[in-house]
Design brief:
Elements lengths: L15 E12 L10 E12 L3 E5 L6 H8 L7 E6 L2 E2 L5 H8 L2 E4 L13 H11 L5 H14 L16 H13 L5 E5 L7 H18 L2 E6 L2 H7 L2 E6 L2 E7 H6 L4 H8 L49 H19 L4 H9 L8 H9 L6 H15 L3 H12 L2 H4 L4 E3 L6 E3 L10 H11 L1
Parallel strand pairs: 3-8, 3-9, 6-7, 7-8
Antiparallel strand pairs: 1-2, 1-4, 4-5, 9-10, 10-12, 11-12
The structure holds adenosine-5'-diphosphate and magnesium ion (MG).
Magnesium ion binds next to helix 1.
Amino acid sequence: MSKVTERTQTEGGRETLVSVENLKKYYGGEGMFADPPVKAVDDVSFEIRRGETFGLVGESGSGKSTLGRTLVQLERATEGRVLFDGRDVTTLSGDELKQWRRNAQMVFQDPESSLNDRMTIGEIIMEPLSAHGWKTKQDRRERALELLSEVGLQEEHYYRYPHQFSGGQRQRIGIARALALEPEFVVLDEPVSALDVSVQAKIITLLEDLQAEFDLTYLFIAHDLSVIRHICDRVAVMYLGKIMELGETGELFESPANPYTQSLLSAIPRPDPTADRQRITLPGTPPSPRDPPVGCQFSTRCPAKIYPEEYDDLSDDVWDAIERFREVVRERSRQELGLVDQARLRLGLFSKYDDIDEAVADLFGGLDAPEAVTDAIESAREQVKAGNPDAAREALFDEFNGICDRERPVLQGVSDSGQQSYCHRHAPEYEPPETVLQRRSDDE
Ligand code: ADP
Ligand code: MG
């Protein structure tokens, strides 16, 4: 196997190990009558440098695990490239793929289910070695014993079974197995999320020690920001299959540029209760990855969304009500009507969407909205009640769309040190996100 040595030098002085280019991973959606695909990872590009710990953070369902699995080729990419040392591994197959896989391993979140309970610890750790026909049986045994001690377990554990171990010990076994073939790159998928806090710290220390000893490069996935902050050199923040922001850990935590990151960070409990950090509660729920927004992925929940010019003077409260109403209508348009409801609709007996009246009353009740707005809401309400939530959804889009609804932003540089953020507000003609968020929190 020839190694391509076209390596790029990056600012930090460290060379690029993994280069991800326009990577997409969609599930399903093939076939003429299939539902639209789940866009788990939707066009992401970034680089991981040799020897660093690159963090990936985001809410549950944002596509972190899918991205991790696709990088190590446990899943095939739908589109895009993944280059290791300049070599595209998404096109590998058969023996070449098997050989390459030695370099890139994965540690899973749940040490409970990721270890086969019928195998001894020794067998579990030797499994990848045997699968790759690594040396002799005696060598493999010795290697397994060596790995046990590397991860802080004892030789006598070799003949025991996973159920005899605690969560933390099982995760040590998972780590030993991942390291058996001496990989350069390891995806750690929430490796401590399932563990007690006291155990988390020990496993993290172990991972740091192993990284230094074996020159490992980590992709560290977590939904816990404090863990990421502690261990990662750089961080990418994911939302609905997209990277919203990326940068050096310290810088990103100190001065997040993206409204999503700003919202996430404001939700962390601060050790010092007097610290003056604005708190933003994100409205609404994340959209379905089968039906993501056309424009910015975060546009349906963004507290710094850019409003269309013709509605420039609307208050934030009215906008929030419009956005929540659009969300209600969107949810209705996602539900397919059953045969009975379709028949009732034709007979004029349809009542399934009558709760839309309550939604309008709740959302717009005490608000002083201009006529253009109330007219648009009223006609959408009628459309929904008539069983046409799709039409209502489109009409609302036509009436209220701004740039965030219509266009995908690009991930662009926002600092000299390589921080990047995905937001229309970084264009010079708009107020920056933090100004908007500050004003909104002052108004409260
Ligand atoms: P995270 O790790 O950030 O919680 P995942 O990568 O597990 O997110 O999931 C991202 C999205 O892809 C979710 O909507 C999830 O339901 C969907 N998904 C993940 N794996 C599959 C699969 N094998 N088939 C269909 N959908 C999947
Ligand atoms: Mg996950």
